[in-house]
Each structure stands twice: as structure tokens, then as C-alpha cells.
Design a protein that fits this description.
- This protein is an alpha+beta fold.
- It folds into two domains: about 70 residues, no CATH class; about 120 residues, Glutaredoxin.
- It has eight helices and ten strands.
Length: about 270
């Protein structure tokens, strides 16, 4: 905005410089409007600036009567090109302002989310607007449940995302089963597999103490931004993602801290 004001001042200075001697007019007709007691302050290729009985104004030279246009050396071709350049500069300026405003808005949103979410109980904090932490969980379309569909109403949800072919995933079934043993009454547990094997646990040679969800499209994992396995996502009672990360970081103590912080208050 300061840059625009400086530019306007420079334009006015140039206008004043264009007038060697002050021009005074009894009237100045601009289209259908007539100004009285006019004193010209300056003019350029497109506009004339003046005081009048009612204050200070400016007018486009193209709207003046022909004799007035001659007085201010109006050239239609030059004025048209000047206006085109001015319009182009204004559009570029507005685009720059819009980009800066959008960046400021995004930065403010990220800062707000960080301030809201960051706490010692958290296992992860949102780094950007793309982080799912603090946002609603993506839609989960399960095509088949093994072991029955868990009851999620009024419960936290924990999904252990893995793949039968992954050696790294197989190592964490004992830890997940141990968590389930401690929190089964408060948290709805499920493993989540994208492969459509009839029994992925039998293929992998592992056993989960809780149900398995088959979601072959992989869209749930994709929308969470998961790029490696295994991963665990914890969702609160309102369907908000509270943790997304490696299962090794999710101890019983940390899961309890998450639940204490984000449990729905009665």
C-alpha cells in the first residue's frame, strides 16, 4: 500500500510539472457533469487534476470537450496505450496482494493449529495444512471384516496399518496385541490391510487379537499421507485424528495421555 501511495505522489508531481502556468477555468465540463471555479493542478496523458468549488477531483481527458482536450494535449492513441499499461500494472499489483494475503492466511492457519495442538501429551504436531493431525479422519470404506466389525460409538479408534509382505510390520503385532489387552474396553482396535488376501494374517504368519479391515482401494491410507508401513492412526471420539506415526512410539502411557487430553467431556 505504501508503494502505491508513493507512486500516486510521483504521478501528481509529474502532473504539476506538466503545467508551466496555472490554468484557471470558469467551468469544466466532464461528460454530463460541470465543475465550476476550476483551478488545474496538473495533467498527464490520461487525466487532468484540479480543484473546484466542491473540492478536489480528477477526470479522464477522453471525456472532455474537444477544445479542452486540445488544451491538455490529449492524444487518443497515447492515452489508450497508457491506460492499457496502467491496467496491466494494477492487475499485477492485485495479484501480488492476493498471493501475499493467501500466504498470510495459510501461515495464520498453520500457526493457529500448532498453538491449539501442540502439547506435551502429543506424539506428533501438525507441520503444515497437509497434516491430518487435528483434522477429521478420512472416509474408510471397508469391503470385508475379519473377526467382526468393532463398535466405534463413543470410543477412540486405533488402526494398525500394515501389509502381509512387510517384515517390519510383522514385528509389531505383539505390541499391538498388548495395547489391545489394556484398552479394549475404551478403544476400538482394528488392523487395516489393502491386500485382498482371504486371510492376510495367515499369509504373514501373525495373529491379531482384534479385527482386521480389508480396504483394497488404499484411499484411506493415501488421504492420511502414509508413505511407509507399519503406521498407526488414533482417532478420538469425535472422529478427529490425534496421532499418526510408527507403532513403536505409541506406548500404553502415551496412548493414555492422548485419551486423557482429547476425551469428550461429559
Amino acid at each position: 500500500m505504501r508503494k502505491r501511495l508513493v507512486t500516486l505522489c510521483l504521478v501528481l508531481v509529474c502532473c504539476l510539472a506538466a503545467v508551466a502556468e496555472q490554468i484557471k477555468l470558469a467551468t469544466l465540463k466532464v461528460g454530463a457533469r460541470t465543475y465550476r471555479s476550476v483551478t488545474v493542478l496538473g495533467f498527464n496523458a490520461t487525466d487532468v487534476y484540479f480543484t473546484h468549488r466542491g473540492g478536489i477531483s480528477n477526470a479522464k481527458l477522453k471525456y472532455l470537450e474537444p477544445e479542452m482536450q486540445q488544451l491538455f494535449y490529449y492524444d487518443e492513441a497515447v492515452a489508450t496505450e497508457t491506460e492499457r499499461q496502467q491496467q496491466e500494472e494494477n492487475q499485477q499489483f492485485q495479484q501480488q496482494v492476493g498471493v501475499k494475503a493467501e500466504l498470510s492466511f495459510q501461515e495464520a492457519r498453520v500457526a493457529e493449529r500448532r498453538a491449539e495442538m501442540s502439547a506435551e501429551e502429543n506424539l506428533a504436531d501438525p507441520l503444515s495444512e497437509k497434516s491430518p493431525i487435528g483434522l477429521a479422519m478420512p472416509e474408510l470404506k471397508v469391503v470385508r471384516w475379519i473377526g467382526g466389525q468393532p463398535e466405534t460409538r463413543n470410543k477412540f479408534q486405533l488402526y494398525f496399518m500394515w501389509a502381509p509382505w512387510s517384515l517390519a510390520c510383522r514385528k509389531y503385532f505383539p505390541e499391538m496385541n498388548a495395547l489391545y489387552g489394556k484398552f479394549s474396553s475404551e478403544v476400538a482396535f482394528a488392523t487395516l490391510v489393502s491386500e485382498e488376501a482371504m486371510d492376510p494374517e495367515a499369509v504373514a504368519g501373525v495373529t491379531a487379537a482384534f479385527p482386521t479391515a480389508i480396504e483394497p482401494s488404499g484411499k484411506f491410507i493415501e488421504k492420511l499421507g502414509v508413505t511407509s508401513l507399519p503406521q498407526v492412526v488414533v482417532i478420538d471420539q469425535n472422529g478427529i485424528v490425534r496421532y499418526l506415526g510408527h507403532p513403536s512410539a505409541l506406548t500404553a502411557e502415551r496412548l493414555r495421555a492422548l485419551m486423557t487430553r482429547f476425551s469428550e467431556k461429559p
